[in-house]
């Protein structure tokens, strides 16, 4: 009788966890991939990027070329999956600098870390914060989104963190009060952040994030990229015995500094990187490399990687130390997450008690949605 009760309780807990498990992913409006082509049944939440901040009045705006894409996004997504939730992502960086999102272009991404005058200029003034918050919520409602996402903010000074505290509190209060005024469901509020709350000059205000955001999309990838590193690297290493540049370290730091595990979504990249080897006979992780290969910045969509593997008859290697797949094609080395890596990371996230995972980005999967069905 006791054993039966325990089994029933465990089954109930597993069912509860599966219901709360979030399978989220980004979709870039500038991508030519149609929303109708995404199997939204594989996800609980889809994040449409990007809206931008007008530097003259701090209000949110959507590019005219993205209007149709965004205004029909929720309708198309929910036609296949009525229970799916959609979020509008707001780019907190320099206007029109999000071209990296079309692929990854991480070298551009890291160059932009210090280009956030528009965002931090906005949060420095109360009236500008009010304009941002009001216009963001109006944009979400007008286009049918069920939540808002802030991507990506890099607080690097004490003044930045102090102003962010006021901004986050005011945004949360506005979101909480809206349903009482207009009898509408409460908007979801999320943030995209780097893999660790502390890195170089960046220090996130963890307690303020904990208090005001529903969860954080952790950018747990692009640790090593061929535009910067002259050696092959596991760009989304779950573990790294010789470095803190790994997902396990970052997740543990977020939790250690006060953000609950159930407010974290691990990032799953649907892209890899290609390096040109110095010596084609030396192709282990960490092998000397000349730099990028195959594309302008070395980033390669998973669907393209699969094409290369099939076309050249190459079987990738799975490295369980770093949790990464890699392959060598001639003098090129490609590191990426295949099915084995995705499975391991999803299991890790569940064991750590995380809220779920977030894909960067969904259309990079192959035609059979092999990675998305794995998660």
From TrEMBL:
GO biological process: carbohydrate metabolic process; chitin catabolic process
SUPFAM superfamilies xref list: (Trans)glycosidases, Chitinase insertion domain
A GO CC annotation given for this chain: extracellular region
GO MF annotations, alphabetized: chitin binding; chitinase activity
Record key words, sorted: Signal
Keyword ATP-binding: no
PROSITE patterns: GH18_2 (PS51910)
SMART domains: Glyco_18 (SM00636)
InterPro entries named in the record: Chitinase_II/V-like_cat, Chitinase_insertion_sf, GH, Glyco_hydro18_cat, Glycosyl_Hydrlase_18
Domain (GH18) ranges: 21-375
UniProt signal peptide: 1-18
Entries under PANTHER family matching the protein: CHITINASE, CLASS V CHITINASE-LIKE
Protein name according to UniProt: Chitinase
UniProt organism field: Handroanthus impetiginosus
